[in-house]
Amino acid sequence: MSSFFSNLKQMGIEGYGISILFDDDTVSVSVLPKTRAKDKALQTLKPLTLRGTITEVDEQFFQILQRPLERTNTLFKNTVAFEKSLRETEEKTQLAKKQKETASKKVSALRKLLKEKGFNPMQDHKKATDIANEILKSDPDHKEAQKVIKEMKAYDNPQLFN
Hints:
This protein is an alpha+beta fold. It has helices at residues 4-10, 54-115, 121-138, 143-156; strands at 15-23, 26-34, 48-53.
């Protein structure tokens, strides 16, 4: 009994398209490795084709295919890994963009609060400090937020005489 499928599995490729054509004592075998990678260039891969007598192909099939299939498998794995990395990077970029937008909105809210006509540091210092602290969570070096916290500290525990 042959170990044909076990040998194919050991090549490391996820799937194959195989076409076999017999012509008297000769055989032509086309093997097309397949992958789940989304890269369209991989869809243009041409099949590996072997031609020979049935005996020759029986004896040398895996020896002939081993090297090209190893290279193909490496290409597939690299492409899948790249696609995964690309997705992760896109997600991180979107997250960073959202964080930046959120921080920008909070900075605008803080500026607006401080410039309001009715802003009273004695009453509104907690609100200003809270917004500044939220800004510092995403940008610990934000000078404006640091300045607001420093200035509003005096209103936390006001003293009549210093």
